[in-house]
Design a protein that fits this description.
The complex is a heterodimer of chains A (about 400) and B (about 375). Chain A folds into three domains: about 70 residues, no CATH class; about 210 residues, MetI-like (MetI-like fold, Orthogonal Bundle), CATH 1.10.3720.10; about 80 residues. The longest helix of chain A is centred in the N-terminal third of the chain and has 39 residues. By secondary structure, chain A is mostly helical. Chain A is built from 16 helices and no strands. Helices cover about 75% and strands about 0% of the residues of chain A. In chain A, α1 crosses α2, α5 crosses α10 and α10 runs antiparallel to α13. Chain B is of the alpha+beta class and about 375 residues long. Chain B folds into three domains: about 50 residues; about 90 residues, no CATH class; about 220 residues, MetI-like fold (Orthogonal Bundle). In chain B, about 55% of the residues lie in helices and about 10% in strands. Chain B contains 15 helices and nine strands. The chains are: A mainly alpha (about 400), B alpha+beta (about 375). Chain B: It is a multi-pass membrane protein. Chain B: Pfam families: BPD_transp_1. Chain B: It is found in: Cell membrane.
C-alpha cells in the first residue's frame, strides 16, 4: 500500500476513531450504563458525571503512560542489564564512568549547559530590548526568530558552509575563514582579536563576579534570617560563580598572550575544545529567537508607572533596563533559561551531523545514540539515558512544584 | 518608554546599528546557503558566495595539447579545444608555469622547433609545426579563465528527481509529509478532550494529573527509544509509519495538553455554565463551544507539532525503517553530509528543499506560533 494513501487512511481512521470513541462512549454512559430516567435517575446522573472525566482523559493518559512514563522505568531496568541481557546491577554505570569518551561527553555537556542558555537568553534579552524601541522592530524580530523553523540538521548544513576550510592556495568559500584571512597582525587585528574579546571577556568576568556577590551578600548579612537550605544554595551559587570567574580570568590572560596563526585557514571544527563552541553557536543561533519572543512580551508587560517613576528620579536608560525592567521579568528569564537548558540536554542532531563526536565534541545524547544503535549495547545506552534523566530531574521537580503552586 | 531613546539621537542611532548588526548576524548564514544553492558546482568551489555577482578570474589546471594532426600547406596542424566540456572565457594564457599569463586570447606564441600555438578566448587552439609532432612531447597550456556570474536552478531539479543518498529528495519529501501530517492531527484531538477534562470538569486527583503532565513535559524522549522499540516489536508493528505516528503522538501530548488546558482555563466560565443550565451535555459543550473558541491555541500547537515532526531526526532514525520508501528529509540530509560532504551544490539545494516548508509555515503563521510560545512558557 502506498504510504501516502496509508497516511490519509490513518488520518481518517484516527480522527474518526477519536471522535467516534468520545461520542459513542458518552452515549453509552448516558443511555445504557447510567440512564437518566427511571427510579434512580438522580443517582445515575451523578455516577455518569463521576465517570465522564475519565472517558475524556483515557486515550491521552494511556498514551502518556505508555510512551513517556513507562519508558522511564523500563530504561532504568534495562540500564541494570548487560549486553547479553544478564543482570549486572550498577556495572554499566561504573563501566561508563571509567570510559574516557563518557567523561568527555559529560564535560562538554556541562560546557553546553553553561554557555548556550546564557548566550541565548542574553542575546534574546538584548534583541528584545533593542527591537522594542524601533519602528522596524517587528521585521527584525521575525528575521531573528526565523531559525526556530529550521531543523537542527538544516542549521548544521548552513553552518558547515560558514565553517568550511580550504587549502591556503585556493579561494576560501567559508565565510569565517575568509574573514579570518583578512587579519594579518596589524592594528585591526589587535583591535578585533585582542581588544574586543578582552572587553567582552572582561565584562563577562565582572558580571559573573557581581552576580556571585549579589548571591552571597545576604548570607554574610547577620541580620537576615534565612532557611539553611537557601543559605546553602546561595553559597553553592557563589562558589560556581567564583569558579567561572577564575576560568574567565585565565581566558582574559590568554586573549593577550596566545599566538594567533594569522594567514592560515583554520579547520574550525577540528580544534579541540574550541570546536564545541562552534557547535554551540548553531544552537544559540536557533534558540535566541525563542528567548527574544518571550522576553519581549515580558518586557512589554512591565508596568509603565515603575519606569516613569525611574525616569522622574533621573535614571539613565541602562539603569532603567538593569535595575527596573530586568528584576521585574526575572521569573520569565528563569523560565526561558530552564527551557533552553532542557533543549541543550537533548541536543543530538547538531553534533551527529557536524562532527559525530569526533575531535572531542561528543555530548551525552549522541554518546547514548552511539551506544544504543552503533555498539548495540542497550545496557550502556540506557545508563547514559538515565544520566540525562538525572540531569533533567531538578528542572522537572521545580516545574511540578510551580504547577502545584499555581493550581492552588 | 520609547521617548527615552528618542531624547538622545545618538543612542537611537546606536540602537538602530546594533539591531542591523544582530539581524545580519542571524540572516547571513542562511542567505549564504541560499545563494550557493543557485550557483553551479564549479562556481561554488572557486569563490565564496559573497562574490557570486562578480566575475571571477581563476587559474585553470594546465592542459597538455593533444589531438590528431593533419597536414595542411606543408605544415602539421593540430586543432582542438582546451576545455571541450565547459564554457570558459580565457583572459590570459601561457605555455610555461613561470609565465602563465604571458599571452592574451587570439595571440600566437612561438614555441621550440619552429612550432606556433594560438589560443582563442573560448579555449580553441591551433598548433602548427613544420615537422610531424608524432612522438614529440606537446606543450602544456596554462590559462586564467574569467567566469562571469552564473545562476542556475539545475541543482534543485537534480536533487528533487535523482537518487543521491539511496533515494531522491522528492521521495523523502513525500515521506516526511506522510510522517508529519497524521502526527500533527491525531495528538490535537486526543489532547483537546483531555485538556477540557483537566480544565473544566471536577473530579478527584485533577491537580495531581496536571502535575503529572507538567512533569512529563521535560522527560527526555531519549529514554523512550529502546523500551518503545521493544514494545512496537512485541505488538508486531515493528519499524514503520504506524510506529512513528504513535511515537510522535505520545511525545507531543504533554505539550499539547498543557498548552490547551492553559488556554481553556481562561475561557469565560459564564458561557459554559449557561450551556450546562440549558441542558447541554459535556460532549456538546466541548464540540460546540470549547473547540471553536480554542482555535488559536489549537492552531499554535498544530504549528509547533508540525515543525517538530518535520524537523525531527532522532525519532525518525529510530522508529522508521531504513528503506528508501521510509527515509525522511533530515535523515537524507545527514546521509548526504556524510557521503557527499564536499558537493555544496547538492547539499545546499537539498537543505533548502527540506527547510522550505517549515519556513513557509513559519512566516505565514508566525502570530499563532508566538501566541503558543507565550501561553506555554509565561504562565
Amino acid at each position: 500500500m502506498n504510504p501516502a494513501f496509508q497516511a490519509l487512511l490513518v488520518i481518517a481512521v484516527g480522527v474518526g476513531g477519536c471522535v467516534g470513541y468520545f461520542y459513542l462512549s458518552n452515549l453509552f454512559l448516558d443511555k445504557v450504563l447510567f440512564p437518566a430516567r427511571g427510579p434512580q435517575a438522580g443517582r445515575n446522573i451523578n455516577r455518569a458525571n463521576a465517570v465522564r472525566p475519565w472517558l475524556f482523559l483515557f486515550p491521552a493518559l494511556a498514551l502518556l503512560c505508555l510512551y513517556l512514563a513507562y519508558p522511564v522505568f523500563a530504561t532504568f531496568w534495562l540500564s541494570l542489564h548487560g549486553k547479553d541481557g544478564s543482570f549486572v546491577g550498577t556495572g554499566n554505570y561504573t563501566a561508563m564512568f571509567q570510559e574516557p569518551k563518557f567523561g568527555e561527553s559529560l564535560r562538554n555537556n556541562m560546557l553546553w549547559l553553561v554557555v548556550v542558555p546564557a548566550a541565548a537568553t542574553g542575546f534574546g534579552l538584548l534583541a528584545a530590548q533593542l527591537t522594542d524601541r524601533i519602528k522596524w522592530g517587528n521585521i527584525a524580530k521575525s528575521l531573528i526568530f526565523m531559525p526556530m523553523a529550521i531543523s537542527f540538521v538544516g542549521a548544521s548544513v548552513i553552518f558547515k558552509l560558514v565553517y568550511d576550510s580550504r587549502d591556503a592556495a585556493v579561494a576560501q568559500i567559508g565565510l569565517l575563514n575568509a574573514l579570518w584571512l583578512k587579519f594579518e597582525g596589524g592594528i585591526w587585528s589587535v583591535l578585533f582579536l585582542r581588544v574586543l574579546p578582552a572587553v567582552l571577556v572582561g565584562g563577562l568576568l565582572l558580571a559573573v563576579l557581581w552576580g556571585g556577590w549579589l548571591l552571597l551578600r545576604p548570607v554574610l548579612d547577620a541580620r537576615r534570617q534565612e532557611k539553611p537550605l537557601i543559605k546553602a544554595a546561595r553559597v553553592l551559587g557563589g562558589l560556581v560563580a567564583l569558579v567561572i570567574a577564575f576560568e574567565l580570568g585565565v581566558w582574559l590572560l590568554g586573549v593577550f598572550t596566545n599566538v594567533l596563526p594569522y594567514g592560515r585557514p583554520q579547520a574550525w571544527l577540528q580544534i579541540p575544545f574550541w570546536n564545541s563552541f562552534f557547535l554551540m553557536a548553531v544552537l544559540i543561533w536557533i534558540q535566541t529567537g525563542f528567548a527574544m519572543v518571550i522576553l519581549s512580551a515580558a518586557l512589554r508587560g512591565v508596568p509603565e508607572d515603575t519606569i516613569e517613576a525611574a525616569i522622574l528620579d533621573g535614571a539613565n536608560p541602562f539603569q532603567i533596563f538593569f535595575k527596573v525592567k530586568v528584576p521585574q521579568i526575572m521569573g520569565t528569564i528563569v523560565v526561558v533559561w530552564t527551557t533552553i537548558t532542557i533543549t541543550v540536554l537533548k541536543v543530538f542532531d547538531i553534533v551527529l551531523a557536524m562532527t559525530n563526536g569526533q575531535w572531542e565534541t561528543q555530548v551525552l545524547a549522541n554518546y547514548m545514540y552511539d551506544k544504543l544503535f552503533r555498539s548495540l549495547d542497550w545496557g550502556m545506552g540506557s545508563a547514559a539515558a538515565m544520566v540525562i534523566m538525572a540531569l533533567v530531574t531538578p528542572i522537572l521537580i521545580w516545574n511540578v512544584w510551580n504547577a502545584r503552586k499555581e493550581m492552588r | 518608554m520609547d521617548n527615552i531613546a528618542g531624547k538622545k539621537p545618538a543612542l537611537l542611532w546606536a540602537v538602530h546599528i546594533s539591531v542591523v548588526a544582530l539581524v545580519l548576524l542571524w540572516v547571513v548564514p542562511t542567505f549564504g546557503l541560499l545563494v550557493s544553492s543557485f550557483r553551479t558546482g564549479d562556481q561554488i568551489v572557486s569563490s565564496g558566495w559573497w562574490q557570486a555577482l562578480t566575475t571571477q578570474e581563476t587559474q585553470q589546471a594546465a592542459v597538455r595539447i593533444a589531438g590528431t594532426e593533419a597536414e595542411k600547406d606543408g605544415a602539421f596542424v593540430i586543432e582542438g579545444n582546451l576545455f571541450p566540456a565547459k564554457g570558459v572565457e580565457i583572459s590570459h594564457w601561457g605555455t610555461s608555469s613561470r609565465e602563465p599569463e604571458a599571452f592574451a586570447p587570439g595571440e600566437t606564441a612561438p614555441l621550440n622547433d619552429g612550432m606556433t600555438l594560438t589560443v582563442q578566448a573560448d579555449g580553441a587552439f591551433v598548433l602548427t609545426s613544420p615537422v610531424t609532432t608524432k612522438d614529440m612531447r606537446l606543450p602544456r597550456v596554462f590559462s586564467t579563465a574569467s567566469s562571469p556570474p552564473e545562476f542556475t536552478t539545475r541543482n534543485y531539479t537534480n536533487v528533487i528527481s535523482s537518487p543521491l543518498a539511496g533515494q531522491s529528495i522528492g521521495q523523502a519529501f513525500i515521506n516526511t509529509l506522510t510522517v508529519s501530517i497524521p502526527a500533527t492531527i491525531i495528538p490535537i484531538l486526543v489532547a483537546a478532550f483531555a485538556a477540557y477534562a483537566l480544565a473544566w470538569m471536577e473530579f478527584p486527583g485533577r491537580a495531581l494529573l496536571v502535575a503529572f503532565v507538567v512533569g512529563l513535559l521535560v522527560v527526555p524522549l531519549q529514554l523512550a527509544l529502546i523500551p518503545l522499540l521493544q514494545f512496537h516489536n512485541w505488538i508486531g508493528i515493528g519499524k514503520g509509519y504506524l510506529g512513528i505516528w504513535m511515537a510522535h503522538t505520545g511525545f507531543g501530548l504533554p505539550l499539547a495538553i498543557y498548552l490547551l488546558r492553559n488556554y481553556m482555563v481562561g475561557l469565560p466560565r459564564d458561557i459554559i455554565e449557561n450551556a450546562k443550565v440549558d441542558g447541554a451535555t459535556d460532549f456538546q459543550i466541548f464540540v460546540k463551544i470549547i473547540l471553536p473558541l480554542s482555535f488559536p491555541a489549537l492552531a499554535s500547537f498544530a504549528i509547533f507539532q508540525f515543525l517538530w515532526t518535520w524537523n525531527d531526526l532522532l525519532v525518525a532514525l529510530v522508529f522508521l525503517g531504513t528503506g528508501n520508501d521510509q527515509q525522511v528529509l533530515t535523515g537524507n540530509l545527514v546521509n548526504l553530509m556524510g557521503s557527499r560532504g564536499g558537493d555544496w551544490e547538492i547539499l545546499s539545494a537539498s537543505a533548502f528543499v527540506s527547510i522550505a516548508v517549515p519556513l513557509v509555515v513559519f512566516f505565514s503563521m508566525q502570530r499563532f506560533l508566538v501566541r503558543g510560545l507565550l501561553a506555554g512558557s509565561v504562565k
